[in-house]
Design goal:
about 210 residues; alpha+beta; Elongation Factor Tu (Ef-tu), domain 3; 2 domains; 6-stranded antiparallel beta barrel; 12 strands; about 40% strand; globular
């Protein structure tokens, strides 16, 4: 589990591509002390397993499903990537609950400045937008952000200079693809409520209302 607070912007040192898979070698600094084989590291919001740790680098395998669902297949040597280690049990929840399981990709439609903030308008499909609420949380390339505005076919986030400076958002331009993960709570609630429609009983809207939800 992650929080969406990026610890470091690393760099892709190398990519070894298979027919439907890839092995990433990522150069990093701050996150590496204490990292060992088997640890989970979110790379642009995608939870990957560290397969080896070298001097200033770590490697991770990327499987077919991950390449299909995310923008990791577009990475090239030299690409900067957002990195976050899994949250420790005694850590602080500064962002929101992030699973590192990307729901799909969006595309940056426009970037505009508003005094000291930067607004990003990101287009997304209905399977992503259905779970987005204004002032709710969204993960963009692993970054926990607040939805500032919801449109019919896109959403907008307003980013402070610090966030842009310490993540790869400062590298992004209109037309770039980004990884998106919806707030996990909405997906679970929808799944549980669907059982009522299937005649399975269990959690219903009436039951939730009765107990104050």
């Amino acid at each position: 589990m992650f929080t969406g607070l990026i610890e470091e912007a690393g760099e892709v040192a190398g990519i070894r591509r298979g027919q439907h898979s890839a092995v990433l070698t990522i150069r990093a600094d701050r996150i590496l002390p204490g990292v060992k084989t088997g640890d989970s590291i979110a790379v642009n919001g995608v939870c990957l397993t560290c397969t080896s740790v070298g001097s200033g680098t770590f490697t991770a395998d990327v499987m077919h499903e991950t390449l299909d669902r995310s923008s990791l297949g577009m990475l090239r040597p030299g690409s900067r990537v957002n990195l976050e280690r899994a949250m420790p049990a005694d850590g602080r929840f500064g962002g929101h609950i992030v699973a590192g399981h990307v729901d799909g990709t969006g595309r940056i439609r426009s970037i505009r400045r508003d005094d000291n903030a930067v607004w990003y308008t990101i287009s997304a499909g209905p399977q992503i937008l259905r779970y987005i609420v204004e002032k709710g949380s969204i993960t963009v390339d692993g970054i926990s952000l607040t939805v500032a505005r919801l449109l019919t076919d896109a959403f907008e986030v307003s980013v402070i200079p610090h966030t842009a400076a310490v993540t790869t958002l400062s590298d992004r331009k209109a037309g770039d693809a980004v990884n998106l993960e919806n707030d996990v709570i909405g997906k679970y609630v929808e799944r549980l409520l669907s059982y009522r429609e299937q005649g399975s009983g269990g959690i219903t809207r009436e039951m939730l209302t009765k107990y104050g939800f």
